[in-house]
Amino acid sequence: MSKLRPSAAEALSDVLEDGMTIAVGGFGLCGIPSDLIEVVRDSGVTGLTLVSNNMGVDGKGLGLLLENRQVAKVIASYVGENKLFAQQYLDKELEVEFSPQGTLSERMRAGGAGIAAFYTRAGVGTPVADGKPLAEFDGQTYVQERGIIADVALVHAHTADPAGNLVYRASARNFNPVVATCAKVTAVEVEHLSEEYLDPERVVTPGIYVDRLVLARPRIKDIEKRTVRPRATTPAD
Question: Which of 5, 128, 188, 196 matches a 20 to 30 Å C-alpha distance to 217?
């Protein structure tokens, strides 16, 4: 049975519900599944728990869902550049569970690997550890963190083959591989569809994790912050 769907809307048409947990790949605006996020916005589902490194920026990426008041809780490592995200958090409109970036990645990886919980030193002695079980190993205190299993994962990849095997491009890889493994249903938008099966040595995410596949619409890729310096000029001799 083919995993390919004719559109992002059809890829998510039968899975979106109020109150569900959605894990989303991306870092800022890099490697975000823009088409799939827009489908979630247009669906009107509410009370969502979103698991993502951050919430994009105002008016872009996951910021669209904040503007539409569809999000009840966010599990993230960074409030970042999204002013609306910060304001909703400060106004107590939005519940935020902060998780150190490496811990967040490992929680999703653990969920995908069937690991219910693990121990880490990150966050010990800070509010991150409040209310969580602590244990001592080799004279050091560790905090227990639960694995994350989402209802739906939204992923962006560079190339997929007919089996749904995925490869990513450069920094757009970021959280996408762990997000792809940690949900009951994983929907992936890709920039390129290969008619041939990918070299197994290149595959980052095996197709067994992918349930729905859609070709991403061409769009200008937004840059969150330009950090390049003006080109230096060489003085004339």
Answer: 196
Query: Sign of dihedral through CA atoms 154, 155, 160, 161?
Result: negative
Sequence-distant (≥ 6) Cβ neighbours of residue 83 within 8 angstroms: 58
Q: Which residue has the tokens 């010990």?
A: 124
Q: What are phi and psi of 55, to 5 degrees?
A: -115, 40
- In the chain, the amino acid numbered 107 is R
**Per-residue pLDDT tens over the stretch 39-48:** 999 999 999 9
The SS3 call for residue 31 is coil
Give the integer Cα–Cα distance in Å for 82 and 90.
13
How far apart are alpha carbons 116 and 156 in whole angstroms?
26
The predicted-structure confidence for 55-84, as pLDDT tens digits, reads as follows 988 889 999 999 999 999 999 998 877 889
Alpha helices in the chain (DSSP H): 8-12, 34-43, 63-67, 83-90, 101-113, 176-181
How much of the chain is in helix, strand and coil states, percent to nearest 5? 25, 30, 50
